[in-house]
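Data availability (excerpt). The following record was deposited with the supplementary files.
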Amino acid sequence: MKKTLYLSIVCASMLYAAEAQLGTIDVEAQIDTEVVKDVHGEDIKSADVADALMKQSPSISLVRRSGIANDIIIRGQKKDNINVTIDGAKVCGACPNRMDPPISHVLTNNIDYITIEDGPFDVESFGALSADVKVKTRKPSKAFTGDIGLNFGSWDYKKVSAMASGGFDTVRFLISASGERGGQYRDGDGNDFYQQVNNYMAKGLNGDPEHDKKLKAQAYKPADSDMDAFTKKTAMAKMFWDLTDTQQLRLSYTGNRSDEVLYPNTPMDAIYDNSNIYNAEYTVRELGRYSKKLDIQIYKSDVDHPMSNFYRKVSAAKPMKNWLTTDMRGVTIKNRFDLDSHEITIGIDSSLRNWDGAYYDANDLFKGVSIPDVDTKNIAFFAEDKISLEKFTVDLGLRYDDTSITPTGALPENDYNALGGHIVGSYHPDENSKLYLGIGRSSRVPDA
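Predicted structure:
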């Protein structure tokens, strides 16, 4: 189990807390939290959220794997050390090589804003080791509105998108859809994927016949050298229903369909990458003195990701497909109430992930297991207390996780228990400055 300890002290002036206007994209920086607003705005063209974040946030860099579905690094931290949720739902990629990172399962044209919280200061999320990225998608409006987008870009990039929203006093709807495709991007020397891989192979030859034969076999077949880098289609539907003045039900679905995504820096490419996110949220306010707001969320996400070497020269002798799937289900219940100068949140967070993968040949004949059929089950209890004392604020958080990883067959089962939390203090000497001190501890279990 990985753990982290985070200690920081910061003095921030009004200059650093101000909101930066970048066309229609707003980046609002706070002490330990950054908010990227209006991600669906007209300044963002590509569907790739990682690329959009890299351009808008100085704390984020990009792991470029292809023309789409790239990954993010936040202050040097990457992969599962970064927790990503989409409207509170957790999405896990199926590929062990992260061809389909969590941030890739939502498109920029469907996003309202993104909150990025550095450090282990989120007790509501499972596995928020070094950063927590919360993606919030667009909300339906009561007024009838809509937009149509048509984009063109370098390397034969084309995109069309449409959104419609509207409703009544109590019920509101939103429907969004998009489709896009992009050609192979070129490096500084003007080389496309086919040429880049060939150049890499040539530099890696060492005279060993066996080594050189395997290396050359990873090159793309000439017949597939001019393929598009990716095609992608998406759909999103939402309904917000105000049951009463104090109760609201939110239902949503997000679907992503990517086809023939090329990854020149790996031996395989994605045949397709399909994902679905189902989300149901129920909120009730003012139940009593000890329940100012009660939130109940149930979600399910699944990813279907077969990758193959069918476009590579090696497939002539040994065609291979690695077909991987993952399924994530979760329930979160949290209750908030005020008590004197305290804002208290208590809750339960539970999730179950299944991960499975196997090798097949070109005729879909089973060749072996790549990822054992394994379940990761987590249940956690958390509490947070935000205390306001004139110029001082104190944030206390505590989370206890009980996690079990259960594979099929003779592989051993593993159990993990962890206690994490944080103490964050802030002092406001005046309206324009803030002193901040925080210490936190969090953990995550191995990938399974």
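Summary of structural features: The first helix runs from residue 14 to 17.
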